[in-house]
Amino acid sequence: MRIADLDLGNQPVFLAPMEDITDPSFRYLCKKFGADMMYTEFISSDGLIRDGAKSVKKLDIFDYERPMGIQLYGHIVESMVEATHRAVEAAPEIIDINYGCPVRKIANRGAGAGMLANIPLMMEMTRAIVDASPLPVTVKTRLGWDEQHKVIVEVAEQLQDLGITALTIHGRTRAQMYKGTADWTLIGEVKKNPRIHIPIIGNGDIANPMTAKEAFDRFGVDAIMIGRAAVGKPWLFKHIKHYLLTGELLPEPTVGEKVDMARLQFKKSLEFKEGPVGIYEMRRHFSNYFKGLPHFKEMRLKLLTTLDVDEIFMLLEQIREQYGEFRPEIADGFWDKS
Known about the structure:
TIM Barrel; 2 domains; globular
């Protein structure tokens, strides 16, 4: 699969951009386990052009992460164009436009998935960004605003005609948020459209190697993008790629192996962030790393409330000692429940 001149190999697996999740510490682990393409956390165009410290910090890219995309969102064309110029200076491989975030504070002001309620503005903005960027421009969006307005087939053609080089489609409407089940039938319809010649990347409910294989085999997408399912499971990229290549399911890591991953990600988080932010933003990951452990409630509460770095490392070692070689899928049917 290629995006412009960027060769991403056969059946690549992408890490989705996620606010307060796909920071450098998490990306480090996902790259280690084989993510073929990653993105920064999505960046507010308004924050970036005003030199907001948090937005500017998100532009940081490390050579070992490449290829990397920078994803921007906003509702004002001129601000998005100016933010594109700023993002290009950070030298990513791709500029990605977010027309998919359903969160109310973003969508209700017309940004993210809010653009699905104003298709003419979406096209005006896309044209302006493609014209302004010397780098390939891609788009991530959803099926439509709601069940009555699933416009993705027509929108995909229009976006392609404006010069985008790849399109990622999340198989839900904005109204669905993250509820219900992702509908891949329209993603497949876009891919099979004879007018479409750019790569189509499918996103939504890919939680294990089997659903990844189905996305490629049944719906014909060029790549898949994984979001929430990878949180606390960075090894998912390795497992999916192994299954696609061999048809063999790898066992879930032992709890001891998960402790090693969590420790490494936490250390990276402390390196990249100042103050307690590195602790706060690890809590969701910690919770997912050790999800499903029996009799874990008390230790989990300590792990997710303390602000003492040494205590967190001590708790991680206690988890290793207590659960060691335990594999939750033996008790919970790890793959069957996904």
